[in-house]
Structure formats: structure tokens, C-alpha cells
């Protein structure tokens, strides 16, 4: 959910389509430390995001790779355990990695839960993404 919520936020900010995000030098992808490759999003996640006007129906999960970590300017982990695993893989890239929540807590995975759990998770992710997005925009403006 985080990937498409971030894309949606970026599209709203720039008033563009997802296809135009690369023109803004933004590429967003999602990968899990224990994800099954090519698994579709859950029915509940698709339903919750559809209510927000976001299509998750074509999303397929993928396992994070070392190449992804190397190519990324920023890696955002959902839980402290995930962050630790990623930092263990590439400790030299730890400065590019952070938790989604600023308070150091993880975002609970709603898998196996009901629609309310997915709605709560989507809201939590969206709330956490806004400051990250704003920080990236500020840093980009400083570079230019």
C-alpha cells in the first residue's frame, strides 16, 4: 500500500499522472524482506485503496534485492526488524535507510485482518508518508 499511496501523494503534489512521475525524477517501488514474488495484493487492500481512488489491482509483490538497495536514494522500512535486516545486508547504505514512522515504532501488517485493519493501516501509512514526501521536496529544492 505504501508504494501506491506515495505515488498518489506525488501525483497530487505535481498535478500529474503516475506515468509523468519519472519526469519529476521520482521512481517509487515496493519490495518486502519476506515477500513472496509476484503475489497479488489482498482483496482488502485493493478495496480500501479503491475507496481512495487508487488502483492496486495490478500490484505484485517482490522480494527486496541488494541491487534495489544500491540504486535507491531512500529506503523506507515498515518495522524496526525490517530496517535492521536491510542494514545488515548493506551496512554501508544505512544512512539511506529509515523507518516509515518517525517515532521508531513499526506499522502493523494487516494481513489476515479485516477491512477495518486495512483502513487503519492505510491511514497510518498515508500519515507517515506526508512528512517524508515534504522532506524530499525540500531537499530537492535545496539541490536546485
The CATH topology turns out to be Rossmann fold
CATH class placement: Alpha Beta
Largest sheet: 2 strands, parallel
Name the poorly predicted regions. Answer: none
Mean pLDDT: 95
Shape: globular
Q: Compute the number of strand runs.
A: 2
**Within the largest sheet, what's the order of strands?**
1-2
Indicate the structural class.
Answer: mainly alpha
Following the backbone from N to C, one meets helices and strands in this order, namely HHHEHEH
Our measurement of the CA-to-CA distance between the termini, rounded to an integer number of angstroms, reads: 30 Å
Number of helices: 5
Explain what you see:
The structure is a single chain. By secondary structure, the protein is mainly α. The protein has one domain: 3-Layer(aba) Sandwich (Rossmann fold). Helices cover 47% and strands 4% of the residues. It has five helices and two strands, in the order H-H-H-E-H-E-H. The protein has helices at residues 2-14, 43-51, 66-71, 80-89, 115-143; strands at residues 75-77, 97-99. The chain starts with a helix and ends with a helix. The mean pLDDT is 95.
Which properties best describe this structure?
Rossmann fold; 2 strands; 47% helix; 144 residues; two-stranded parallel sheet; mainly alpha
How is the topology of this model organized?
Layout: H1 2-14, H2 43-51, H3 66-71, E1 75-77, H4 80-89, E2 97-99, H5 115-143
Helix pairs in contact: 1-5, 2-5
Amino acid at each position: 500500500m505504501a508504494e501506491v499511496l506515495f505515488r498518489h501523494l506525488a501525483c497530487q503534489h505535481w498535478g500529474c499522472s503516475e506515468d509523468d512521475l519519472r519526469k519529476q525524477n521520482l521512481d517509487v517501488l515496493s519490495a518486502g524482506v519476506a515477500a513472496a514474488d509476484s503475489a497479488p495484493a489482498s482483496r482488502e487492500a485493493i478495496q480500501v485503496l479503491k475507496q481512495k481512488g487508487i488502483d492496486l489491482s495490478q500490484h505484485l509483490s517482490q522480494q527486496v534485492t541488494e541491487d534495489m538497495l544500491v540504486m535507491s536514494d531512500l529506503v523506507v522500512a515498515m518495522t524496526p526488524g525490517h530496517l535492521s535486516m536491510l542494514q545488515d545486508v548493506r551496512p554501508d547504505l544505512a544512512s539511506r535507510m529509515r523507518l516509515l514512522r518517525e517515532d521508531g515504532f513499526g506499522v502493523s501488517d494487516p494481513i489476515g485482518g479485516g477491512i477495518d485493519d486495512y483502513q487503519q493501516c492505510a491511514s497510518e501509512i498515508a500519515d507517515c508518508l506526508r512528512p517524508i514526501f515534504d522532506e524530499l521536496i525540500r531537499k530537492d529544492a535545496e539541490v536546485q
